[in-house]
Amino acid sequence: DEEADAMAARLGLWRGIYPSNMERYRAHCERRGAEVLADPAPPLTRNPWIVERGEWLVACPRASSRGTWHAVRCAETMGRPCLVLGESSVTRRNGS
Questions:
Q1: Is 1 in contact with 27 (CB distance < 8 Å)?
Q2: pTM (two decimals)
Q3: What number of CA atoms fall less than 13 Å from residue 12's CA on the CB side?
């Protein structure tokens, strides 16, 4: 998350921050130039908020990444297009 946020900042893209209330799941992104959109919340609570705000979801999950896969499922349920970048594949999912 930190790498993706830094890349978006370098490209001058709009960035929204939905911080986790759990330190081990919290990305420490540069807040300068970003909009904090929510108070810290549990990861599985934040995922639908993140998906609702965007037009696309770009996800880079590890096989063991429950939270990122949850966000992908949220995108599918909400009918949002999703690009999943895996270690050896790229998959476009169109939502439901």
A1: yes
A2: 0.80
A3: 0
